[in-house]
Amino acid sequence: MHLAYPAVLSALLFCTGLYGVLARRNAILVLMSVELMLNAVNLNLVAFDVWLSRAARDTLHSGQALTLFTIAIAAAEIGIGLAIVLAVYRGRGTADIDKLRDSAEPHGPDEATVTADEKAEATA
Amino acid sequence: MSLAAATAAAARATTAAAESHGFLSPTGVEIAFLLVGLVTFGAAIVTVTTKQLVHAALWLVVTLGGLAVEYLLLTAEFIAWVQVLIYVGSVVVLLLFGLMLTKAPIGRSPDADSGNRWAALTVAVAAAAALVWVVVDAFRTTWVDLDGAAAGSTEVTGASLFQSWVLPFEALSVLLLAALVGAIVLSRKAVADKATPALPTPGPPSGTLPPSRTAVDTTASGEQPPAKEGTR
Fold first, then answer.
1. Chain A: closest CA distance from residue B182 (Å)
2. Which of A3, A15, A24 sits opposite B127 (nearest CB)?
3. Where is pLDDT greater, at B25 or A103?
4. Fewer CB within 10 Å of terminal CB in chain A, N or C?
5. Distances (CA, A) of B170 to A66, A75, B166
6. What is the pLDDT of residues A47-72, one digit of tens each?
7. Confidence band for B12, pLDDT divided at 50, 70 and 90
8. What is B21-163's CATH topology?
9. Which class would CATH give A4-123?
10. DSSP 3-state assignment of B224?
């Protein structure tokens, strides 16, 4: 098999995941897109490991070992990520990334004064 | 030194092998890989573009299953079954649980995509074009020999994992433990805050509780009234 086939498929899957991360609004859909990107990297690692194990007589199998590590880290990441999303949902009532703008810098003077007024009301 | 020599020999061998295999004369494995790859890529596209959130998770199952088939075609059997077990078996179930617990709408939700989707599409298409061009240009003649014994059977993978990669493997188990504890802490926090005011705080606790637990409880109940006054 030509190495170009798995490499091209992995590049296309990675860019699909990239589009999902940038364009999706729900936090869980963003996590799904991150999984897509991680899987694209895994496919690349496996393909190059199979190539090197035959062509360069590589017996270390670093690509497959790294793939297993990536899968385990992705499982840990999805657990922690979902716990964070659920905690945010419990506190704010939404998992919408566009609405979670507490750490964003204010755009104009109006928004800045509004937040200042809210702070003044909260402290009063 | 020896690695460079091996790489050069490998490059010569793969070029010699690729000369006997034309670029546009696909073998059976390549045709199967191409077809499964098309299904996988299409399912990935639907995953990131569909308006129904639960359908996105189900199309993700198709994508991950297709990738498992690709691993099998690349003779990496152990990775393929691990992929089926962990991704299709647990990660998608976790994602579905997350969708249900955040009360995701079952039907079509028109605001699934944010307003910057055209910028995202531009970035993704540009990245795909650049990556595909570079990858095809670099590995056009590289040939992967799939005949003979499997490169990723359970025996081979287990031997390399427990001979060369034992220390990262053990470190990874510590990471998984830390992730487990972290997920429990993140999930329990609101429950503990909600449960603390309901506890009957006056009266000495029974001796069965450890002292650290009682100390935490008394400090939490001691902080509770000023916080309430502050919010009102």
1. 7
2. A15
3. A103
4. C
5. 14, 16, 6
6. 999 999 888 888 888 999 999 999 99
7. low
8. Four Helix Bundle (Hemerythrin (Met), subunit A) (1.20.120)
9. mainly alpha
10. helix
